[in-house]
Amino acid sequence: MDTMNKNLIRLLAGACFLIALFVFSSCSNNDSEPAGPAIPIEDQTLKNAPYPVGAAVNITSLKNSEKYRETVIHEMSSLTAENAMKMNFLSKGRGEYFWDDADYLVDFAQQNGMRVHGHTLVWYKHTPSWVSEFSGDKEEWKAILKEYIQDVVGRYKGRIASWDVVNEIVMDDGTLRDCIWLQKIGPEYIELSFRYAHEADPDAVLFYNDYGHEWSFNRRLFVNHLVDSLRTKEVPLHGIGLQMHTNTNRSLLDLRYAVTSAAISKVKVHVSELDVSVNPDKKDITFTDDLAQKQSQVYKEIAKVMKDIPKELQYGITCWGVHDTGSWLSPNPDWALLFDGDFERKAAYRGFIEGFQ
Ligand code: G3I
Question: Which are the contacts of 259, defined by CB distance < 8 A and separation ≥ 6?
Answer without folding.
Answer: 242, 269, 271, 302, 305, 306, 309
